[in-house]
Amino acid sequence: MPKFGATQEKLLLLLLASAALGFSKSPIKQKRILKSARKEWQRINDRNLARSIRSLYQSRLISIIDKADGTSEMVLTKNGRQQALVFKIGEMHIKKPARWDGQWRIVLFDIPERQKRIREALRGHLKHLSFYEYQKSVFIHPYDCRDEIDFIIELYHARRYVRFIMAIDIDNDLHLRRIFNL
Which end of the chain has fewer CB within 10 Å, C or N? Predict the structure, then answer.
C-alpha cells in the first residue's frame, strides 16, 4: 500500500464525501457534508492539490473524465473508495448527545471462522468506538451509532453476518449505566 500525504488523504476523503452527499436523503446531513467539504477544500494549497491529483491518478485511485463542455470531473475508482474508507474509519467516533434517549444499541454478529480477520477487525472497531463487550459477539452502546455501524459493515462487506438492535430494557441495565456513566 503506497504512502499518502495529508493533501492526498484529504482529497480522497473529500471525493468520498461528495459520493455520500448523493446517497444522503436528509437535507440536514447534506448541508453538514457540504459545509465540511467546503472548509476542507479551502485549506488545500493549489500546488499541493495539483501534485496530489496527479499522484492519485497515477496510483489509479481516481479517474479523470473530460466532458464535452471542456471541464473535467474527478471520480474515485473502486480502489480509491476503499482507501478513502480506510482513512475515514480511523477518525470515526460516536457523538455523545446532551441527553441519553434511554435506548441501548446492540450489535451482534456471527461471522464464519473462514472470515476470522473480518470478525476480529469488527470487534476491534467496536471496542475502539467504546462499545461494551457484552459477549464475544454482542456489543452494546447507549448512543445513536447506526451510521457508524453501517459504515463499518459496508467496509468489510459483512452485512449478512451483522444485526443491529435497539432495546429499551436490558436485565442488567444498572450495570450498563454505571459503565457508560449514565
Answer: N
Residue range of the domain that includes 117: 104-179
Q: Looking at the whole model, is its pTM more than 0.85?
A: no
Report the length, in residues, of the chain.
182
Are 21 and 83 in the same domain? yes
Of the listed ranges 8-12, 55-59, 93-97, the least confidently predicted one is 8-12
Name the CA dihedral angle for 144, 13, 161, 114, rounded to a multiple of 10 degrees: -140
**Phi then psi dihedrals of residue 102, to 5 deg:** 80, 10
Which of 63, 90, 117 is the last residue before a domain boundary?
A: 90
- Please give the tally of structural domains in the chain: 2
Alpha carbon distance 182, 179 (integer Å): 8
The Cα–Cα gap between 178 and 182 comes to: 6
Label residue 134 by pLDDT band (50, 70, 90): very high
